[in-house]
């Protein structure tokens, strides 16, 4: 049995103030590429993880294995099973790059184990078992149904601290909106060759240090999301969509994420903006930068490749309007 799922862009958290009794909230887009392909078969010995020889350079394989083992163990505990499996990771993308690899890999593993045990569980049930979605619900929503997603965050009586998803064990938040993302809009992923990523305790420390954010920023993000970004997706209005994205990138916790980056990240975003790309920004804590346009990207690709240099990478993709697929 094999599952395929893909990355997501995390455009912004909405409320890291909590003045009205909720925190978090997220805005994101499911991507068609890059993607994960994970195969799983039962065996009679012990659980093992194989990395396909065509995987290429994606970083430290140990971190991928750790997440597969973690999800498998949690599923066995939930199912009260001692099942053993052979997992083959056939395709993946870099971890700690702002594309949501951790959540997708944990959910993929959990889904395969549940299916092989004839247990039907939806993505939100699986997320609770593997303890993901404790801050943003974008990754879980992408896995379930794809598209453009806005989630409603958590009540402060359920979650009373500002924490990243990797450190928060509460249930995934409710999805408020899920729209098809316009099929003609192209998404450019520009990843500068920077060595530093934000994850683990370092990310927790940043949340603790820089929150709560100003309530005025939260109110502005909410207004731009509800009255500009969401309608522009339905109306396929790239100009209004871009204006909302670009303004939100300078507000709240997203501004903090941007301010903490190395110069190359913000230089890449500004370079894309100067090229006339309507919507530009950084996904999650980076280093992945994105540009969204409905125009021709041929010339943009070549110019951007030169700007990024040999250490950087570039991918042009589109939105994906369906969730994970099991074959």
Describe this structure in words.
With 327 residues, the chain is of the alpha+beta class. It has 2 domains: 2-180, Ribosomal Protein S5, domain 2, CATH 3.30.230; 186-318, GHMP kinase, C-terminal domain (Alpha-Beta Plaits), CATH 3.30.70. The chain has helices at 61-79, 101-116, 123-130, 138-145, 200-210, 215-235, 238-248, 252-259, 263-274, 298-308; strands at 2-15, 22-43, 48-51, 84-91, 148-151, 154-155, 175-179, 186-191, 279-282, 289-293, 313-318, 325-326. Strands 1, 2, 3, 4, 5, 6, 7 and 12 form an 8-stranded mixed sheet that branches. The protein has a 4-stranded antiparallel sheet with strand order 9-10-8-11. A hairpin with a 6-residue loop joins strand 1 (2-15) and strand 2 (22-43). The longest helix is centred in the C-terminal third of the chain and has 21 residues, at 215-235. The protein is globular and about 60 Å long. The mean pLDDT is 95.
